[in-house]
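User: My collaborator sent over this chain with a note saying "see what the structure looks like." That's all I know about it. Can you take a look?
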Amino acid sequence: RRSDERVSTNLPARWDGLSGKSEARIEDLSMGGCFVNTRGRVDIGEIVGIEMKLPSGEWMQLRGEVASYLPGTGFGVLFTFLTEDEEQVLRELIS
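Assistant: Without extra context I'll predict from the sequence alone. Here is the result:
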């Protein structure tokens, strides 16, 4: 199902979707997407903006499409709009 290597993380995050803004944590990460641990509600197929706090303390903004949703737990996102700079930062985080 997944072609990209996934790594476990625990990065503070915020996300913004149709239901508004919510606090979250990024629990796993790959070049293709991530799992967002949050109580916030999303719809599959919804486009969300995610800000994740990098180990350097900087915030990185990403956008993606909700691929899965577990009520009360969180959702999986596919990164569909990565720039070269975002890809480079993700590569460094994963390696």
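A starting point for your reply to your collaborator: Residues 54 and 67 are 23 Å apart (CA to CA).
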